[in-house]
Amino acid sequence: MGALAVGMQGLLLSGMHLALMVLMAPVCARFIQWCRQRMTGVAGPPALLSRWRMIARAWSCPGMRAASGARVTALAPWGALVMALVAVLLVPSFSLGMAGEEGSDLLTGVVLLFGAGGVLCLVGLASGQGREGRMAAMLLVGMMLLVPALVVAVAVPEMATPGSTVAGLVRFMRMAQDSAGIRGPLALAGGAFILVGVDRVAAGSGRTFDGMTDNLAGPDRAVMLFVRDLVALAWITLGGDLLWPDAIVIPDTAGSPHLFVAMLVAIALWGARTLGLCGVVACLRTFVMASGQVARLRAGLALLCGCLAIVLLFAGREFG
């Protein structure tokens, strides 16, 4: 396959990946919420498109911003959207071979996802209102508790594999044998990334987030609602890539006639993997993190996963 054809294939795969993530982000957020409701005994239909309808209603409302810090509240949602979209392009979902995968640095993707969540909190901090500012500060404190766990989780793949890109990491895991002591530590690192997304927003309980955005309406609020779902799905996808890299297709540069069928199968596997991980997130949020100390619990569990990953990595090198 020529360089032009490879480039066109990469652009097509990138477009499919981005469209899939954008369309599925509110659906997966609603699925987590429905799973939690079922686990707590609340009956009701899944209504998987209800999150999209909520975003559409918010978009159609007249725009409103707090007078204090209006410039910040006007830019923050859209800045967070750009950061989230760039991060999503760095995290493969169902296939490798996307355009620009050589620059899909793991640390860059993690920083962008983490930063997008932090930028959203600027809306509450800049509103000049006591309640909104307090809610935003609570979310920021919870995020800061996750920093040590994220540092450890990012360090594990950097120490375990020769490359630093997510695509190179997946390729290496596909070629490496489990006896080499690689997949176990990387799976634990993936679990740490998923735990980062197990917050009140991702689990369908966004009272703190809603309180932070009380003085925001219109397209700005709709963008914030969408970005929080997209960031949560990106964390789950990143963790899923480390937990089950075999579900990701590596395109044949020779131009296989069965590539389209392989892509459809890969998309189906990605959907099954994502819904399964959404169910795990709902279980964690319902049974493990049901108390008010969600931020401390998920930070502690994520750090524990990262530390165990490092222990397993060095134990495998010592005794493997």
Automatic annotation (TrEMBL):
Keyword field contains Glycoprotein: no
Keyword line: Membrane, Transmembrane, Transmembrane helix
Domain of life: Bacteria
Transmembrane segments: 6-29, 74-94, 106-125, 137-160, 180-202, 222-240, 260-284, 296-315
Protein name: Uncharacterized protein
Provenance organism: Gluconacetobacter entanii
